[in-house]
Write a structure and sequence with these properties.
0% helix, four-stranded antiparallel sheet, globular, 85 residues, 8 strands, single chain, two-stranded antiparallel ribbon, mainly beta
Length: 85
C-alpha cells in the first residue's frame, strides 16, 4: 500500500492500475480522524480492506468511518482476480 504523508492519502499497490495477487498491507493511523473515500473497488467477497474488525469489499468502502491511532487498517487480496483498488 502507498501512503502520502501530506493529507494521509492511502492507495492500493499500483493504483490506478490493478493491484496484485496475494497482497497484504498494514497501515498505521498516525492521527485520529474520519476516512474520506474518493474511489473504492475490490474483488467482491475475495479482496478486503479492513478498518479494525470491519471488512469492506466490492464498491462498499469505509467512507465516513472514524479512526484513532489504535485502529488497525489492512488490505488483503487472494490469488486470482485483481482490480483497481
Amino acid at each position: 500500500c502507498t501512503t502520502a504523508a501530506a493529507g494521509g492519502c492511502i492507495q492500493s499497490p499500483r493504483y490506478p492500475a490493478n493491484y496484485g495477487n496475494n497482497e497484504n498491507c498494514n497501515i498505521a493511523v498516525l492521527s485520529a480522524g474520519t476516512l474520506q473515500v474518493t474511489a473504492f473497488f475490490t474483488e467482491y467477497r475475495f479482496d478486503f480492506f479492513y478498518v479494525g474488525r470491519t471488512r469492506y469489499d466490492g464498491t462498499r468502502g469505509p467512507n465516513g468511518v472514524a479512526v484513532t491511532t489504535s485502529t488497525t487498517l489492512r488490505f488483503t487480496t487472494d490469488g486470482s482476480v485483481t482490480v483497481s483498488g
